[in-house]
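Reagents: none. Just compute today. Alanine--glyoxylate aminotransferase family protein.
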Amino acid sequence: MPESFAPPARTLMGPGPSPVSPDVLAALARPTIGHLDPAFVDLMDETKGLLQETFLTQNRLTMPVSGPGTAGMEACVDNLVEPGTTVVVCRNGVFGDRLRQMVERAGGVAVVVDAEWGRAVPPETLADALVEHPEAEVVAFVHAETSTGALSDAETLARIARDHGCLVVADTVTSLGGVPVRVDDWGLDAVYSGTQKCLAAPPGLSPVTFSDRALERMDARETPVQSWFLDVSLVARYWNADGAKRAYHHTAPVNMIYALHEALRRLQGEGLEAAWARHRRMHRALAAGLDALGLAFVVPEAERLPQLNAVWIPDGVDDAATRRRLLDEHGLEIGGGLGDLAGRAWRIGLMGEGARPGPVLACLGALEAVLD
Ligand code: PLP
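Predicted 3D structure written out:
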């Protein structure tokens, strides 16, 4: 029989997963109970309430999808897109392109608005595309592009989309909990996130929220959602129903809901605004240190995500060998570049529990040692 797995000590400062606090890990290790047990159902309701507070929404349909961020992404796209639906997809990195692929797999017509990698999506390019494509019904964009560290102006993009009568799909996988995300104030219709970034829980759940406008569109569908598992009208009977009407859909990952509940409880205890401010503060400290080490940012300052810091790899430095040394000699994980930035940039995460002075100092110290 193999030995029981003991993970090595790591400081997680990549693009996710982020470090998980001992309280959240302890919640995860509590005894599993039935997924229709009245005590668990109460926990589900409380978790929904905590998610509404985190997304800053009153949306009735707010819940964690059982699956990683990509599952929430697919739930949003598949439920709003039918064969022939035109969707304007803003693409300024890897995850915007993933949205495009999903739209096309759902039978939709993707109109891609390309923006430079490492930059926010310019709102005027979206406006131009919507003038050119009056048939568009949905706009999709990534608020915080983890592949580059660029933060787009979700509020303005959503306003433009709504002015053209479109529903808004927003990816908040890396933004939620780290920078402001105001679902109701900004008029976002289908929003997904992930547990493993600034929410500071392990990977495996994707919080989603749908506006009433999105629900109306789903009710009016002419074709069934292509995925049975992610058909929100079916899963809502489990997450969004009261009392005896609550029906089995799939077996929820019970212990992961314990962990998410604990992480959200801690976030509310700190306060959302305080958590956003902490991410900004830690980013400023890290940026000052990176600057002192001579590492230059990929993204211009005004468009930078505090929680994902992409820096150019200095000339003559071996990407893979350096990251391996960080891991082996310092127990530090940072991310390599994705897509266009592969081999050219490092991505340093300051997410959730990673956005604390200890990890920032450990990261700067380790980088200093390996780049010496
Ligand atoms: N969207 C963004 C912006 C992400 O950063 C990620 C993951 O890093 C995803 C979607 C997909 O999430 P997951 O890897 O949990 O499926």
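The chain has a mean pLDDT of 97.
Action item: order primers for follow-up constructs.
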